[in-house]
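User: Some background: our group keeps a shared notebook of sequences we're curious about, and every so often someone picks one and asks for a predicted structure to add to the entry. Today it's my turn. The entry only has the sequence so far, pasted here. Could you supply the structure so I can complete it?
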Amino acid sequence: MTSDANQSPATIFGHPRGLATLFFTEMWERYAFYGMRALLILFLVDAIAEGGFGMTDRTATAIYGLYTAGVYVICLPGGWIADRLVGAQRAVLWGAVLIMIGNAILAIPGSPELFYAGLMFNVFGVGLLKPNISAIVAELYPEGGVRRDAGFTLFYIGINVGAWLGPFVTAWLAQTYGWRVGFASAAVGMALGIAQYQITRRHLGTAGLTPHRPAGDSATGRDWAYVLVAVAAVVAIAALGLSGVFDIDARAAAEWATWVIVSMAVGYFAYLFLFAGLNAVEKKRVVVIVVLFIACALFWSGFEQTGSSLNLFAERYTDRMLFGWEVPAGWFQWLNPLFIIMFAPLFSILWVALAKRHLDPAAPAQFAFGLILLGLGFLVMVGAATIVAGGGQAAPTWLMLTYLLHTFGELCLSPVGLSSMTKLAPQRFVGQMMGIWFLATSLGNLIAGLIAGEVTDVGLAEMPGQFMNIFWFGLGCGGLLLLISRPVKNLMGGVR
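Assistant: Of course. Here's the predicted structure to add to the notebook entry:
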C-alpha cells in the first residue's frame, strides 16, 4: 500500500529527501561491490607467489560468473523476505551488515575456503539489499510517471558514483599494498554506508517500513522456517563441496546454475499467470515483463565481459604505461560508471523532453537500442583484438570507446528497466518483481562468465572472431526486439 504519507515532507530539487538517504546507501554498497569486483578475477588468476590463487582463466571466469550471478539470484528470495516478513527498510539494513562482514572476511589472508565464505556473505547481503532499496525508491513516488523515471535516474547516478569510486580506490590499494588491503577497503566503504543509512533513515517515512502482505494475512513461523531451511541448505552444500566431500568443477557448476535459474524464472512466471489471481490487465503487463526479462539477460551476458574478459584484456594486452607509471588494470573498471555520471543527467533530460512531445520510446524499444549499442561496443573490440593478434599492444582508447558505447546501451536499458518493473508489477508483488529483474541480471552474469572463458582461452588469432560473434549477437537480438516493440508496447496498458 502506498500513499502520499510514504513521502517525507522535505524535498531536494523537487525530489523526496529520502532519495538522498537511498542515494548514499546505494553509493557505498556499490563502492564495496564494484571495488571488490574489479579485483576478483585478477586476484584469482594471479600467481600464488604474488598473493593470488593461480587459477586458470576458465576456472576463474566461471567463479566470477557464479559470484556475480549469485548476488542477483538471491534478490528474488530477498524481495520475498521484505514483502512477506520484515519490510524493505530492515532488509536493506540487514543486507548491508552481511556485505560488510563478507568483505572483511575477504581481507583475511587464508585458504580459498575462507575466501569463498566471504563471497557467500556478500551474496546473501546483496540479495537482501539490492531489490529492496529500489522498491523503496519506487514508494517515494506513489504517483509513478516520468517523475519516478527521473528519480530512478538520479538514484542510478548514486549507484555509479560508488561504482566509479570503488575500483579507483581498491585497485590502487591492491597494486600498492596488496590484494587484501583492497578487499578491506570495500568493507570500510560498506560500514560508512550503514552509518549514513541509520542516521538519515527517518527521512524515508513509511516507505518500505512494513511488509506488503495482503490484508488479513500475517507472517507465520512456517515462513521463517522456509528461510532458515533454505539458507542452511545452501551453506551445507557449499561447505561439503569446499571441504572436499565431493568435487566442484566451477565451469560445470556455472552451466548447471544457468539451467536452474532458467527453470526458476519459468516456474515463477507460470505461478503468476496460473495461481496469483492476476486480472487480465496485470497478465498482459507480466507478458511485457517476460520480454524485458529476456532482453535484460541477453544484455548483461555481453555487458558483464567488463569485469571478466575485458578486465583480463586490460591486464594482458593493453598499453597501460602513463608517464613511466603502470596504470592499474582495475582502473579501466571505473570508465563505465564515470561515463554514467557524465551522461545520465543528459539521458534523463532527453527522456523528459521527449515525453513532453509524446515522442519518448517505450521500454521495449529502449531495450532494443541498448542491445544494439552493446553489439557496436564489441565491434570496436574486434579492432583492438586484431592489433593484439598482430603482435602489438592495444591503445587504451579501444577499451575506452567500447565502454562508452556500452554505457550508452546501459543508459537505454537499466534505469528504464528498474522503473518499468515497479510500474508494470502488481502492487503486492513489487518486491518480488525487483527480484525477478535481478534474476535476469543473474542469468546474464552466469552466461557472461561462460562466454568469458571461451574468449580468453583461445589463441590470439581467434580472439577477433570471438568478439565479432558477440557483435552479431547484440545486433541481431536488438534488431529483433525493435521489430516487435510496438505490439509489446500495446500490452503495457498505458504504462510509460
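Suggested note for the entry: Strands lie at 11-12, 15-16, 321-322, 325-326. Residues 1-8 have pLDDT under 50 and may be disordered.
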